[in-house]
Amino acid sequence: MTRRTGHESSRHRALGALGALAVLAATILILCVTFEIAVRWLAPQPIAFHAIRELDAPSDPQSRLAGAPPASAGTEERVAFLAQHALGSFQLGRRYVSQKVLVELNSRGWRDEEVAIPRNPGSFRAVVLGDSVVFGYGVPLEQTFQKVAQRELRSRLPQVPIEVLSFGRQGQTLYGSERFLPGIARIYRPDVVVIVVNMNDILPRPRGRSDQAASARFIRSILSIFRTHVDRRLTSVSHGYFLIRDRVKRLIFLFGYTPDELGQLACFEPDALESAAAWRDVFTSLEQMTDTIQSHGASPMILVLPAAPQLGPEHADIWRSEYRLRFSDAFARGRPQQMIGRWSAERGVPLVDPLAEMIEHARESERRLFFGDSNGVSDWNHPTAAGHRSLGHALEAALRPHLPEPVSEHEIQGAGVHRRPASRRASRNHGRITDSAMTPRDILLLPTRRSV
Q: Max alpha carbon distance in the chain (Å)?
């Protein structure tokens, strides 16, 4: 019998270990494939809603920069343009299917029709600035609330060219809107700028992370890469991964874990002392944005988007019991809207608060106003097409007093522009403010936690 040398014995053990790893990997692969097939057969998940599919990819890689302003353009114009490439999901002049609807960007990177620059004489133009709700998450462009308002305004005043333009970006916050507003106001010359405030906008202004430990920054960057390149891809292609991801997320919620993006939201505990800094930042941002809008000769307006738990006590109970979303009774009763309403009333800025209308709509109709769990995620702040219709009706009523008088062709073609400027007589508040609402000054000077 031949005796093995030490080198041969080590080589044999290494081959054995590699063989064991190969068997383990093959076993895991077979189990994953079997699990995937079983989930697709027995419990298919709504992955199609979350997939982003490009319909026509141009062969020229430089086409993504089509429509870019020239190097000689002003800084504000280039910032407004380059803002569209921050997300990376969509590119200029391309068509996609996302959330089961067509997403098509115009030549300047916004999800809207092509816009005349400079604007046509005698027209009325309102721009709506906000986040993924303004972008039209999960609904066709023509069913977004700004396009609903545009159709209704055009039907009321067909003699005047009326535009209600969408300037929404997925993942945008109020502070991002503040950054891009000067360029948008200068380029598009609107009569009215509607600042959309979502409940998830009520959070502290992002500060630098220089005070964080290097290990914390490293972990955050790894998690960000995983979410962007791994989680998003697997969520859109694997039913098994989608199911496991959803169950694990629900499990950790049961143990009281709150993700960072939810834990920072001051809307859930509007009267808490801990929320004062976030409210201060929000009101400072609104102050700066309204000043910017007025400096460009436009009228500011604020639209506060409701959330699903605010549609009534039964809706609040569902979100507390089934989704473990933690919020105060004050949030469920609309206290964030009341606080923003008091701020806007003090400064004479019109407020659109469609909460009461949406509550009434939820009582009278069985149609879902928010996506909720219909797409496999607990979505409490994205409205469906039915929800957009309610928002559109409220926006149309708020914009109606700003419409100009019809102008004759002779006036338009005459020397100069004789268009009568949009009226600034608008209702100061399209929602209801109760006497019990706390002012921004109250919340900032609050010594202790106020009872609801």
A: 111
